[in-house]
């Protein structure tokens, strides 16, 4: 463990000010940050504690959107009545992730910032462009089965994004509110996480001195149903091999609106817009769902050990759409 300065903030402005001027990290639940500090992957000179910030509320806005404070725990969000009733896909995604004790500590803002679980990133010695730009990607020629992607990859990085919560939020649609030295700004959730491209070390659209204060979910689609399906090697405490968060609205048996997002298969929470469009106006049948699932994986790039994720991910999409439209 390297030495670092610890500072506790009691306001958003104080947190932003404390973060500026030297390599720093915000800490809330610490379920990711402290692990990465212990294994020397992250090396902040200052850690700014944001647990005292007034960001623990979940508020329904006048336009029907839901504003979630960055400090709301995964457990509190999963069981919030509005989330359970109107955003089932999010509640189910949160409850499928980690253990109860981790969900009690993990926060909304921290989950959005969750970093990859690629073992080559975390071992501290393997070639990893995300950890050490220009060093290479050991996963491409190494073992790349469970936590590596088939969508959105590049020749610089193939690590999959690990969050379940973010997949659900990608399906719902959301805005990330951030605060920094230049004031507040909004980032569309689908633009927040970045593809690796040639710069996998740049993981998100947040500037180094900005703090997430809220996530605002889009208003629910009228008459819709939603669900989250997570496929993994074992039933508990495991990251997704493939997951699917869907929202679907029908008029009779005809699909009026659809949202599809996928996890475990993409380098970021993956929204399948073309597949969604293919469903609109179609009957809510297995044939329609299978066609959409095939479209969702168009352009996927399999690697030596994870080619199975393409049919598995397609099955996840079909099953979740079937579950969401079941009588």
From TrEMBL:
Q: Note the Pfam families from the entry.
A: CO_deh_flav_C (PF03450), FAD_binding_5 (PF00941)
Please name the InterPro entries in this protein's record.
CO_DH_flav_C, CO_DH_flav_C_dom_sf, Diverse_Substr_Oxidored, FAD-bd_PCMH, FAD-bd_PCMH-like_sf, FAD-bd_PCMH_sub1, FAD-bd_PCMH_sub2, Mopterin_DH_FAD-bd
Q: Which domain of life is it from?
A: Bacteria
One molecular function GO term is:
FAD binding
Ranges for the FAD-binding PCMH-type domain?
1-222
Keyword entries, A-Z: FAD, Flavoprotein, Oxidoreductase
Q: Which interval of the chain is the signal sequence?
A: none
EC number(s) per entry? 1.17.1.4
Record protein name field = Xanthine dehydrogenase YagS FAD-binding subunit protein
